[in-house]
Amino acid sequence: MAKGYWIAQVDVRDAERYKDYVSTAKPAFERFGANFLARGGAVTQLEGKGRARNVVIEFPSVQHALDCYNSEEYQEAVKIRQDTADSELMIIEGA
């Protein structure tokens, strides 16, 4: 079974409230086996428009990644993220 990956690019507008997103999302990440591979580290932007914060999260499967996003816990966090940051988020199937 192929792993699933969340790729997120984020510009945080309200750093203090963004912490609420992180704490609200944590139970969903734990429940669906999220493994953070990159979380806001230094970036070398080579092409295109980048964002300040970049995150790569590995899940046991694409289904786990989708289920995490669609979970009640994460949907509560989405509301906070959308109020405090501009972002793109995608799920990619691993090789």
**CATH C-level category:** Alpha Beta
Number of E strands: 4
Which sheet architecture does the biggest sheet show?
Answer: 4 strands, antiparallel
CATH fold annotation: Alpha-Beta Plaits
Average pLDDT taken over every residue = 96
- Quickly give the structural class: alpha+beta
The outline comes out as globular
Keywords:
95 residues; alpha+beta; Alpha-Beta Plaits; 4-stranded antiparallel sheet; 3 helices; 41% helix; globular
Q: Would you mind describing this structure in some detail?
A:
- With 95 residues, the protein is α+β, with helices and mostly antiparallel strands.
- The protein has a single domain, classed as Alpha-Beta Plaits (2-Layer Sandwich), CATH 3.30.70.100.
- The protein contains 3 helices and 4 strands, in the order βαββααβ.
- It has helices at 15-31, 62-70, 72-84, and strands spanning 4-12, 35-39, 53-59, 85-93.
- The longest helix is centred in the N-terminal third of the chain and has 17 residues, at 15-31.
- The model has no long low-confidence stretch (mean pLDDT 96).
Nutshell version of this structure?
By secondary structure, this protein is of the alpha+beta class.
List the helices and strands and how they pair.
Elements: E1 4-12, H1 15-31, E2 35-39, E3 53-59, H2 62-70, H3 72-84, E4 85-93
Antiparallel strand pairs: 1-3, 1-4, 2-3
Helix pairs in contact: 1-3
